[in-house]
Every structure is written in structure tokens, then in C-alpha cells.
Amino acid sequence: MLSGLLLIIFLLLPCVAYASQPMQPITDYRLEVSFNIQTSRQELLKETMAVQISTLETLPEMMERVVVKKIVYVGENHIQFSNHVMELEVIKDLHRRRRTIAIGMEMFQKPFQKVLDEYTEGKIDEREFLKGTQYFKRWGFDYNLYRPILLFARSEKIPVVALNQRQEIVDKVFRRGLDSLSEEESKFVPSGMDFSDDVYKERLKKIFQEHEDFGARDFNFFYQAQILWDETMAESIDEFLKTHPSYQMVVLAGNGHLSYGSGIPKRTARRNGYDYAIILNGADLKKDIADYVLFPGSIPGETSPKLMVLLTEKRGRVEIAGFAPESNSEKAGMRVGDTILSIDHTPIHEIDDLKIDLLSRKKGEKVKVRVLRKGFFGSQKMDFEVVLQ
């Protein structure tokens, strides 16, 4: 009898507790849901773009329209090989039409212009060019993505213009703002930088908020660095065209620097008023985002093979700091702390030496890696045969 009474009390307790809470009016909840759905629908309708299929153009048809523009901006997603194929085709098309063109590239920084000139003029080889521009330290994306473009420029003696600001200056502004620059560093800041584009600022703020890995705590510093980046590249374009008025320029940069004209194009136009066209690769179809958006799809491209090691430079030596998963180098017996001395008798003094050597190799190729290993009784040289991945 007692157990039955306890069971009845237990079953009643949740009901009592529930009844003691104030009830949420059902109508309020329904109104809130209805309002949210209605708002989402309005946003969806506002952002939906309709494409008139009959107006779609082929790449040659597009080129007929942009050929007359003084500046042709071509945007990219840096790691998409197909985007770089499109960039090269735009360059080749203008060249076939006997246009006098130059190529402006975000990928290279202004202090290294002389090295770019020497390479495109055939005065130095690819190794000297890559080391001289510090490509792997300052840009870092697989050079095979850009190699066909640079080789074509070299073969046809097309000038390549380094557009970008010195990395050290952009990084300092990114961390501490423009006011942190020294008097000497401030000399490299373009005059009359424009911070008035509030729509661009809001787009950048959204990007900043979505990417915690940027490493910056202050959006204003991030914004200043972005404007410095854009204004420097606009200034570089303008400087070249002022001294080479007969030239047409193809500018290669990330989509973000070109979308809506906010980053580089409008800032260049502010300086010289030249007519331009914006071509983006794989961008969202949004009103006024560009003159043309290309959808080249994804294709496999040649990439450099890897030793699958994490490297660091210490006191003029290249040391192994770790290994990627399933690394053949680790399986072969190499260890963290080993100093890489050579690869197939090619001396390795810095990480660039290794990356340049790997450019000419293929995945699956066997190489002999010589390392210096520290031991209890001193250091010894050791050789390992590694299959590149």
C-alpha cells in the first residue's frame, strides 16, 4: 500500500513542477517563428539573382568586349589551378591581338621589381628569380600555379609589375595600426588613402568576424592593413601606366581585392580615370560584383612533390620540426631535430633551396636526403632514401 502511494506521488511531481512554471503564450511563439521565416524569405528574394541564359557569352566573346579596356582585372581563388588557366588565357588573347601589355601581380612585392625585370628579360634563371623575390617566404602558394604565366611572360618579354606592399609593413599595421609605423616605414605608405567606403568596410568586418584565425584583435588595424594593401597595389598600377602610357595592363589579384571594384579598381581609377573591366573566377553571382564572372570548374594541376616534413630555419640551417601524417621521411628514419644538408647532392641552406629543388621533381621519385644528427658523442651525417609524396 505504501509503495503504491509513493508511486502515485512520484508520478504527480513532474506535473506539479511543470504547472508551477509560467506558461509561454503559444501565440507569441508562433508570431516569432512567422516573423523569422518572413524575414528569411525577404532576404532570400532580395539576394536571388536571375541569369538570362540567352545572354551568356563564351570566353572569346567576352574578350571582344574587354580588349579595349586600359586595365583588365582578373580575380582568382589562389589555390584553384583552373583560375590561373583563365588568367593566362586572357593574357594570351590580348597578346595574340598584338596589344602592348604588362602583367601586374599581387604575388610579388615592390622591393623586388628589379629581380622580376631581370627574369622576364632572360638575364637570370628561375632559381635566381625565386630566391631573389623571396617567393616562398612572401607568398608561399605552390609556384606551379603561377609558373606557366611567368614562363609565358619571360618567353614573350612581357613586363611583370610587382604590385604588393612590403610584407613587414602590412604585418606591422595588421598588429598595431598605421600609427605604429616608423618615419622610414611611413615613406612607403601611399598618400591620400581612402577609408570612406563604408560598404567595403562592412564586408571586411564580416570576414574579420568569421575568421578568428587571423590573429588580429582589433578590426580597425585589420581594416587599415587591408586599405594599405589595396592602395599600394593601385598606386603601383598607376605608377607603371604613367611611365608607360602606351601599355595596357592585366592585373592578377585575389577576388576579394577586386569584387565590386572596392579594393584595387576604384582606387586606381581615382588616380588616373582609366577605363577598366573586372573578371572574377568562381565568385557569387551578385549585382555589380564584376563585369564578368567565369566558372571554369576544377581541374587537376601540377603540384610540387613533398618530403612531408615541417621545417624551421635556425642559425642558417634547415631543421626538421615535425612530420606530416604518413610521412615517408619519418618512415625512412629521419627525426625531429635533424638538419637537412642536401637532397641528391644539392646543398640546402634555407627552406627556399629545398622548395626550388622539388619544383623539378615528381611524386613517387626517390631522393637521397643527407642530414646532420646530433648525438651524445657528437654529430654525424646520415643518408636516407625517401620516396616523394
What's this model, at a glance?
The chain is of the alpha/beta class and 389 residues long. It has helices at residues 2-19, 26-47, 59-66, 81-96, 113-120, 126-132, 135-138, 147-155, 167-176, 183-186, 198-210, 219-243, 255-258, 265-272, 328-332, 351-359, and strands at 71-76, 101-109, 160-164, 248-254, 276-281, 292-294, 309-314, 317-323, 339-343, 346-347, 366-375, 378-387. The chain has 16 helices and 12 strands.
Helix and strand topology:
Blueprint: H1 2-19, H2 26-47, H3 59-66, E1 71-76, H4 81-96, E2 101-109, H5 113-120, H6 126-132, H7 135-138, H8 147-155, E3 160-164, H9 167-176, H10 183-186, H11 198-210, H12 219-243, E4 248-254, H13 255-258, H14 265-272, E5 276-281, E6 292-294, E7 309-314, E8 317-323, H15 328-332, E9 339-343, E10 346-347, H16 351-359, E11 366-375, E12 378-387
Parallel strand pairs: 1-4, 1-5, 2-3, 2-4, 5-6
Antiparallel strand pairs: 7-8, 8-9, 9-10, 9-11, 11-12
Helix pairs in contact: 5-6, 9-12, 12-14
Q: What strand line-up does the widest sheet have?
A: 3-2-4-1-5-6
How large is the count of helical segments? 16
Biggest sheet details: 6 strands, parallel
Distance between the termini: 76 Å
Indicate the CATH architecture of the largest domain. 3-Layer(aba) Sandwich
**Global morphology:** globular
Classify the secondary structure makeup into a structural class. Answer: alpha/beta
Helix proportion range:
40-55%
Helix-strand sequence: HHHEHEHHHHEHHHHEHHEEEEHEEHEE
Low-pLDDT residue spans: 1-26
| Count of folded domains | 3
Radius of gyration over all CA atoms, rounded: 28 Å
